[in-house]
Amino acid sequence: MTLALLTVAALALTGCATGGGDNTGGDSADGNTITHAFGETTVPEGVERIVTIGWGSTEAVLSLGLVPVGIEEQVYGGNDDRVVPWVAEEIERMGAEMPTVFPTSAEEPAYEEILELEPEVILAPYSGLTQEQYEVLSDIAPTVPYPDEAWTTPWRDVVRIVGESLGLGEEAEEVIADAEKAVAEQAAAHPELGGRTVAAIWDGAGVFYVYRAADPRVEFLFDLGLENAPAVDELANGESTFYYTLSYEQLDLLEADIVVNYATTQEEADAFLAQPYAQAIPAVARGSVATIVGESLISSVSPPSPLSLAWGVEDYVTLISEAASNLE
C-alpha cells in the first residue's frame, strides 16, 4: 500500500478525515460532475475500479455492462455469500468473477475494506450516508451519494446517477427504457389494477409501518397503474417522508382498495392476518390483500432495479392481481 493510501487509512480509521469537498472541481473535460445532497463530485473518465454502497447501485453498474470490484453485503434477501440472487445470476451470466463483498453496518461504512480495494469511484445513490461518512469516503475516492434525502432515490434516478457518473448516460437511459417496457407489459396484462388505490404495509415486532409515495417500492406500485390511497397521506404523522408508524387502534382508518403486506416468512404473515387489528383493515377483511413473502422477493422491489424487476416482477404482480380479484 502506498504512503498516500496509508495516510488515508489513518484518517478513515480515526474518523479525522479533512472533508469531501475537494473532489468536486466543477465541470471538467476530464470527468463527469454529479450534483448531490452534499455538494458536487467529479468522477474521472474511464474509471474501472468501482465500489458500490447501499441498494440498487450494484445492479445499475451491472446493467451497464460493468462489474464492481467491491459491493456492500446484502444481509436481507442475500444468499449464503450475502449477495441478492439477481446480482449473483447476472455476474454468472456475464462470466465475471464475484466482486469482493464487504460488510455493512448501521454505524458506518466499512472504511478499511473499501480502502483496500483501491477504488476509483464509490457509488452510493441509494444509501444512508451522512455528510461525515461521505467526507471520509471522499478521501478514499470520489464518492457519489444520493441527490436529496437518504434512502428515497427512485430506481430510475439510481440508474441515471450511476450512468452519468461513469460517462454512460445514454446507455443508462436505454436500461431504464427496457425496464419500463417490461413493467408496462405487466401493467397492460393486468388492467384490473388500473386506478385502484393501494397502501403498502409491514407489521414488524409490534410496530406497524405504512409506506408513503416517496418510498421506491410504492413508486413501483404506481408504475403498475395503482394509485396512492388518500388515507395513506391523511394518516401520516410526519415521522419520515417515506414511511410512518400507525397504532393498531387506527388500522380501521386505512382505507384502500388493495393492501400490499410485506412479511419475511409465511408464519409471520399468517400471524399478522389472524390478528383482530389486521382484520380491522377494510382490504384485509374483504380479502384484497397481497402478501409478499420472503426476503428476496421483498428486496426485489425495495427498491426495485432493472435486474430485480426482471427477476421477480411477474410473481409480484401476480400476487397483487389475485388480491384485486377479491374486489369484484
Q: Mind explaining what this structure looks like?
A:
With 328 residues, the protein is α/β, with parallel strands linked by helices. It has two domains: 3-180, Rossmann fold; 190-327, 3-Layer(aba) Sandwich (Rossmann fold), CATH 3.40.50. It has helices at residues 3-14, 57-63, 85-94, 111-116, 131-138, 155-165, 169-189, 216-223, 230-234, 266-273, 276-279, 282-286, 295-299, 306-324; strands spanning 31-36, 39-44, 50-52, 70-72, 100-102, 121-123, 143-144, 197-204, 207-211, 227-228, 243-245, 258-263, 289-293. It starts with a helix and ends with a helix. The relative contact order is 0.13.
Give Rg in angstroms.
21 Å
Strand content: 15-25%
The percent of residues in helical segments reads 25-40%
Largest sheet: 6 strands, mixed
Number of domains: 2
Show unreliable segments: 1-27
> What form results from the Cα inertia axes?
globular
The N- to C-terminal Cα distance equals 66 Å
SSE inventory with pairings:
Elements: H1 3-14, E1 31-36, E2 39-44, E3 50-52, H2 57-63, E4 70-72, H3 85-94, E5 100-102, H4 111-116, E6 121-123, H5 131-138, E7 143-144, H6 155-165, H7 169-189, E8 197-204, E9 207-211, H8 216-223, E10 227-228, H9 230-234, E11 243-245, E12 258-263, H10 266-273, H11 276-279, H12 282-286, E13 289-293, H13 295-299, H14 306-324
Parallel strand pairs: 3-4, 3-6, 4-5, 6-7, 8-10, 8-12, 12-13
Antiparallel strand pairs: 1-2, 8-9, 9-11
